[in-house]
Amino acid sequence: EVQKLNQQLEEKNGEIQQMINQPPYEKEREILRLQKTLAEREKAQATSDVLCRSLTDETHQLQRKLASTAEMCQHLAKCLEEKQRKEKGSSDDQIPTERSNQVFLQLLLDNETSLQALICNLQEENRMLKQKVAHV
């Protein structure tokens, strides 16, 4: 283990000596290249951070919207149940009510499905951006 560490130390010393022996213009060129690379990475990181925050905010907004929509749906379902109980006596009135209930429920399911799909898409995009950030 000690020999391995000594060998690594010798390699690093060799690299340092090589850098010291380089002409000044090559050192400056290498420094400029490293500074440019660092600046690019910092810019990419900042962009990724902004995108991640934006996606997080959008996800929270959609979750709140979904919760309020679900609440409204529950309220409307209760109202429909009450209306059905009141109109229970007449069978002619029940058939249109059942049809309207089916249409209403289908609309609710479609709305919830589209919101879930949008949330899944945002989560996937967020995951991919995090992978890109980790890669950078």
TrEMBL record:
Taxonomic superkingdom: Eukaryota
Biased composition (Basic and acidic residues): 1-14
Keyword line: Coiled coil
GO CC terms, sorted: cytoplasm
Region Disordered, residue ranges: 1-25
Key word Transport present: no
One of the GO biological process terms: toll-like receptor 2 signaling pathway
PANTHER family: TNFAIP3-INTERACTING PROTEIN 2, TNFAIP3-INTERACTING PROTEIN COILED COIL FAMILY MEMBER
The protein's name in its UniProt record: TNIP2 protein
